[in-house]
């Protein structure tokens, strides 16, 4: 009897995870610039954060009111009419200005990052 209850709880949790995943994917791909529950799902496009995560991994980010040294953040940079997203670790903080660096990179990122370009902090990756 106890095993059946545990099995049913496990099935319900699995079902809820799948359902939430489908909802997130729906919002991400069918409703542009949406952030259901304030989170965004992105796919990593380079190996600059090895060994933390690699190209092809999925990350979930969420906008925060504050960021700290050691946080991994995603921020936007504009080049011409293109927007690129960079996901790197904060290595220095001065008020609301941050210096970031990819874990696998040899040098810091050249631009100073401010809160207005930060899209969120990485909460989960897989």
| Largest sheet, spatial ordering of strands | 1-2-7-3-4-5-6
Q: What coarse outline follows from CA principal-axis ratios?
A: elongated
Distance between the termini: 34 Å
Q: Can you tell me the CATH superfamily of the largest domain?
A: Umud Fragment, subunit A
For the secondary structure, the number of strands is 7
User: Which spans of ≥5 residues are poorly predicted at pLDDT below 50?
Assistant: none
The CATH topology of the largest domain is given as Umud Fragment, subunit A
For this structure, what is the CATH class of the largest domain? Mainly Beta
Q: What would you say the CATH architecture of the largest domain is?
A: Ribbon
Structure description:
With 126 residues, this protein is an alpha+beta fold. The chain has two domains: 1-32; 35-125, Umud Fragment, subunit A. The chain has one helix at 2-30, and strands at 39-43, 58-62, 72-79, 82-94, 97-101, 113-114, 118-125. A seven-stranded antiparallel sheet has the order 1-2-7-3-4-5-6. A hairpin with a 2-residue loop joins strand 4 (82-94) and strand 5 (97-101). The radius of gyration is 18 Å and the shape is elongated. The two termini are 34 Å apart. The model has no long low-confidence stretch (mean pLDDT 86).
